[in-house]
Amino acid sequence: MPRNPFLERRAFLKQGALAAGGAFLTSGLCLASAAAGSRRRARFVVVIMRGALDGLAAVPPLGDRDYAQLRGEFALRAPGEAKGALPLDGFFGLHPALNFLHASYAARELIVFHAVASPYRERSHFDGQDVLENGTTLPHAAQSGWLNRALAQLPGAARREAGVALGQNVPLVMRGPAAVTSWSPSKLTALDDDTLGRLTDLYAHDPLLSVRLADALAADAMVAQAGGMSTPPQDMAAAGAAGQGVSAQPGAKPAAQGGADRYAQIVRAAAGFLRQEDGPQVAVFDTSGWDTHANEGGAEGQLAGRLTALDKGLGMLREQLGPVWNDTAVLLITEFGRTAAINGTRGTDHGTATMALLVGGAVAGGRVIADWPGLASRSLYQGRDLAPTLDLRSVLKGLLAEHLSVATRSLDTNVFPKSERARPLRGLLKA
Amino acid sequence: MQQLGSTIAANRFGLGARPGDLAAIGGDGRDWLRTQLTAAAPVLTDEGLQGSTEILAQGFALQREIQQQRRAGADVQQKLPQFLKPIYTSEATARVRQAVLTERPFVERLTQFWSNHFAVSVDKQYMAGLAGSFEREAIRPHVLGNFGDLLVAAEMHPAMLLYLDNHLSVGPHSEAALKAGLHQRGRPIGINENLGREILELHTLGVGGGYTQADVTAFATVITGWSLGGGNGLFANGPPGRFVFRPGMHEPGPKTVLGRRYPDSGYNQGVEVLNDLAQHPSTARHIATKLARHFVADDPPPTVVDRVARAFTEYGGELRAVYRALIDSREAWEQQLPKYKTPNDFIVSSYRGLSLPVDAVHGPLGPFDLLGQRTWQPGSPAGWPDRSADWDGASALLKRIEWADAVGGRLGSARDATALAPQLLGANLSDASVTAISRAASASQALTLLLAAPEFMRR
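YS: structure for the whole thing
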C-alpha cells in the first residue's frame, strides 16, 4: 500500500500532540492558538429538552394566586413544607428535584428565564423544535441551525471544528456551514489503520463521506486524548431498552435508570471535549421524555424523575469540567410549554411559553428574569397557556454576543434572520 | 454492465439486492415493482406471535396480580417489562426476517413506511409488547388497500389509543365527568388532546394542512370514549385488550371539525371525521410528499408530489394506484443515488446482500441498536425522520463502518466481495469501489469495503 499521509497525521493525533478536529486534518498545521493568550476561551453547552418541558412544573410561580388552583393535586407546596418547592426569589420556586440547580442559584451561577418562547405559536412538537433550532420565525425556513451559523462567525472556525454534537448525528441547531462533528460511545471494535486508510482513499472523491470520516476520527482522537471517556459506565445498548421510557401508568417507576445512565455518558463525553484547550468550544446534546400528557406527577412522579436525572447530569457536567466550568455557560431550552391547567388524564397538553435556564461558572446568576404575565384566565394565551413575554431569541442573542463575541449585525441578519426587534439581553455573563 | 432500472428497483424501491436479484428483475424494473402490488399483502406467520388482545389481557392480569400482592404488603417487583421484552424480541426478529427473506421487498418497504407514519414508540410502557402486533394487525392488512381503512384501523387499535393517551380522555360533560365531579373534587376530568392533535398533524392533514387549535380540541372531544377494555379504573370494563367505545366517557352533542358539523352519533362520530380527513386534499398532499421523500429525494420534485397526490384523490385513497403513480414517475428513475440509507435499511440490505441468517443465535437486532435505529423506537409519534442530514453524522458513519468491519471479520472468506459487488450494486458500482475491493488485503476487508462503499450507503 502506498504511504498515506492521512494515516501519519492520524498517528500524530493519537500521540495526543493535538486534537484540533477533522477540518484541521485536511488543512495543515496552522492551528489557531490565539485563544491561549489574551482571553480565556468561552465554552457553551446547549441542551435541547425535546417534547416540551412543563415550565410551570419545573419553575412554579408559587406567588401567583391562580397557580395552586390550576395545578390542583400537582401544585407544589411552599418552600420549607414537606416535599415543598426550593426557594428562588420569593415568587418563583424550583421543583424539589432540582437540587444542583438550586445550589447554583445560591452560588449566583443560574439565571432562570420564565414566560419565554421562540417565535413559534402553534403546538406541533416537530415544527416547534424546528423553529427552536433553525433560528428563523417559521418551521422549515432554513436547513441550518442558529448555533452553527453563529459558530461560522467565530475566528478560526474555518480551520477547525468549533462544535461537537453528542450523539450519532448532528441536530439541526448544529447543522450548517461551520465544521462540527458528532461523537457517541461505541461498543464496536475500532478499525485498523490499514482499513481506515483504504476507506479514506475510497471516500476521497465523495465530498460528504470524506469529511464525515475525517471528523469522526478526529473526535475519536480527542476522546482518546481526554482519556477513558469512551468507556461507558453502563451498557449503552440497555439505555433505551423497552419499558424504560416515559411511563403512562400511575405509580410506575419514574426516571428510567437507563435514561439516567445515558445522560451520564453524554455529559462525561461533552466535558471531555470541552476540557481540551484546543477542542470544540460548543457542545450540544438532547434530552427527551418531557411530553407529559398523562400522569405527569407533582413533587414526585414521572416528571420529577426526569428532572432528577437532568439535574444530576448537570451536576456531573460541572464536576467533570473542573476549572473549565468557570468559562462555561449551559443553556437549557425546550420547544414550548404546556397548558396552564392539568388535563383530563393528570397531565398537560401542548402549550406556549415556558422557562429556560442558563447555568455555569461564567453566568451572572442568582436571578429570575421574567416579565410575569400572570395565570388568571384572561391573561393566558388563547385562554389556556402561559403567555410569552420574552422572546427566546433575545436570550440567545445576548449570550452569543457576550459569551462567544458574535457581532450584533450577524446576529440580527444571519444567525437570527429578521430579528432586529428581539434585542439582545445584556449582562447575562460575568464581566 | 447492469441496467440502471433493475438497480433502482431493487435498491431504491426495495430493501437491497440479493445475489441474483438484479439478473432476475431484468432491465426495466418497473414491472417487477408493479407485480409485487397485485397479490394480497403478506402476513407474518412466525410461530409464537401473539395478538395484541392476548398480550394486553395477560399484561393487565399481571398488573392486577402485582397490585394485589402489594396491597397485601408483599414487596414485589414490577414484572411487566420482563413480560413485554421477549414479545418485542420475537416481533422485531420476525419483522427483520420478513424484510430479509421477502420476495416482495417493495411491499415490505411500504409496510415499514406506514408503520413509521403511524408510529408507536416502544419507549412508552406496553408499546414494547404491542408495536409488533400493531403493525401486523393494523398496518399490514391495509398496506395494499385503502388509506381510509388503514387510518381507521390504526387509530382504533388499542396500541395507538394507549400510546397517545386517548383511552382515558373524558368528555367534560360526559356521564363520567359528571359523576367524578360529585365524587372526586379536585381531580381534573376532561379531554387529553394528544391523539386528536397527532391524527391531524401527523397522520392526515399535515402540519400546514389548515386546522386550528379549535379543530384539535373539537376532534379530541369527538373521539372521547374511544378506549379499550380490561385495564384499571376508568377503563376496567369490557373485553380485555379490545377496542371499547365507552358512551359514558364520550362528550355528548354535535361538534364542528374543519367547518363541518357532525351530529352526535357516539362511536361513529369519530369514524365520520376520520373518513372525511382521509379524503381531504391536504391529506393527499401530505401523504404524497412523504412517499416521494421516502422513495425519490429528500426534497422531492413538485411534479412527483403533484402526480402522487392526484392519484390519491382520483382513486379515493386506493393505495395501489398511489404507488403506481410513484413507480410511473420518471424522476424516480433518473438521479443515481439521491437518498442516504437509514440505519435500518443499511442493515437490512447488508443482511440481504450477504445472505446473513436472521435467527436468535446471530443476534439480528443488535446492529439496529448500535447504529442508532432500534426497531419501533423513534421516540415520538412523528416516527423516524427521512432526510439524509438526519442520518449522515460523523459518528453514525464510523459506526456503520465499524459494524461492516465486524461483519467482514466474522464472514471472512465465506463470501466473495468481488463477485458480490456487481450483483448488489449493479449500475451504481463505481470503478473506485471495484478497485478497492479487488485490492483488499483479505476477504474480510473486501467485505468491509463493499458494505462501506459510498454506493452501498446510499440508494
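YS: worth flagging: The first helix of chain B runs from residue 4 to 13.
IM: good catch. Also Chain B is about 55% helix and 5% strand.
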